[in-house]
Amino acid sequence: MGATEEEEKFPFDINPMYEGERIRKTGLYAELGGQSKPGFELVLFEPEPENIKDGEVSLIGPDLADMEEGGKYAYGMIYRVYGEQIEKDLEAVIERRNHEYQSYIQGYMHLNQRGEIWVRISTDAVKKGLKSLKQIGRATIMLFKAELPFIERMEATFITDEEEVEKRLEEANQIYEARDMRSRGLHDEDVDEFYQCTLCQSFAPTNVCVVTPDRIALCGAMSWFDSRAAARVDPEGPNAPIPKGDCIDPIGGEYTGVNEAAVRLSSGEYDSIKIHSFLEKPHTSCGCFEVAGFYIPEVEGIGWVHRGSKVSETPIGLPFSTIAGSVGGGKQVQGFLGIGIQYFYSSKFIQLDGGWRRVVWMASDLKERVADAISDEMKDKIATEKDVKDIEELRDFLQRVDHPVVKGVIREVDGGRVTEGWAVKEEAAEVEAEAVPSAAQVPLASIPMMASGAGGGTPIQIILKDADISIRKIIVKKKGGK
Ligand code: SF4
């Protein structure tokens, strides 16, 4: 990207090579949004061009110079846009690009989207002359207008006053929700085209995002409607349509058109994707997913934890950050899956694996947040960190509530059996174990004994000859531990 005259005025480099730049605590000037402070980004379409002061950036709250080094602050970014080709559906599409363009700015790290943004500014950038968030705003507007020519006018309001951010975040949440609600009445079978998204291929080259009416993008920022609007203004662009082709598997959501796109977009890494599957040919996950799912083989069920969760550990003993490391990278990882929060509301939510009947654990703040998406049958059968701490407690919980995984999961959509159930398997194993006497079960009278010492009370040694020993379970416990 060549430097324009205006760009020359910025005291920082602007280049796509800075995408993926990480700012660690040691070089941190200020953190905006993230885990400890509210933050959001929002793009609003303005139908009257004269209502937008093109290129203007205003700031409500303290600017960089007023911030303490190493401090954490609230952060809201509201952009208002006008363009003859722009329609309301494009708001989310333009908003998603904020991540990309701000990531071009050296010394400015932008992560996540919507009400979960997390920004870090480096001390180096401040030393080089970055004084104001307005400079960031002007650079962002310049990038938006250069990259998306259909934006004719654009202005920005940045907010760092915490009270104001909280107030505007509530309004933004209502807007996000209204956008998400639009897709709920539409289903995959009602349309001829899905949409790709390749925006994250810059850091996850084999990632294949497929957005369908029943599966919102895993970053949560692009619904099928948003993607369609993006494809209309830029049909060859990152959100180009994917003709569905023939349906190979209606339950798993496998289509010939999607498989062809998978080959093309992943440069041959993947040749098939099942859109509504967790374990078999799952959708790829880059690093932007809102929620990470993880398979728990001990109970044949699935757990979910979301970005920003207050829950520090899952029953498999790992926090979100570690699980996220296994999920991401643009890979198709069996046993892990990244999704957008709205996918919980989809009537096809991981339906190949049994949908909600396969969910055994959720972080309590996530379970609360999507409570109305959970089927009535399953509401009290899904454990949280308040119910269980580890796998053993989870097993007990699931047995107590008679969770479907215990006796086997039957898919609601077609009555297909998904799992046999671990209780059934265990019973079978026990019967088998009874049929083949183990060492412990061989009557002592039949075991030759040999006193290892003289006199009563001395230890005896048991020698087993031709014994068949089977071990069904080994529990290793710390000495003195529970
Ligand atoms: S996560 Fe997927 S849909 Fe979202 S921006 Fe990245 S590539 Fe696009």
Structure commentary:
There is one protein chain. With 482 residues, the chain is an alpha+beta fold. The chain folds into two domains: 5-182, 2-Layer Sandwich (Bifunctional carbon monoxide dehydrogenase/acetyl-coa synthase(codh/acs), Chain M, domain 3), CATH 3.30.1650; 188-407, Carbon monoxide dehydrogenase alpha subunit. Chain D, domain 4 (Ribonuclease HI, Chain A, 3-Layer(aba) Sandwich), CATH 3.40.970. The protein is 25% helix and 18% strand. Strands 4-1-7-6 form a four-stranded mixed β-sheet. A hairpin with an 8-residue loop joins strand 18 and strand 19 (460-462). Helix 2 (91-102) crosses helix 4 (133-147). The radius of gyration is 28 Å and the shape is globular. The chain binds iron/sulfur cluster.
What is the structure about, briefly put?
This protein has 482 residues and is α+β, with helices and mostly antiparallel strands. The protein is 25% helix and 18% strand.
The radius of gyration computed from the alpha-carbon positions, rounded to a whole number of angstroms, is 28 Å
Which segments are poorly predicted (pLDDT under 50) over 5 or more consecutive residues? 1-7, 438-461
CATH class of the largest domain: Alpha Beta
The CATH homology group name of the largest domain: Carbon monoxide dehydrogenase alpha subunit. Chain D, domain 4
The counted number of beta strands is 19
Distance between the termini: 61 Å
Shape: globular
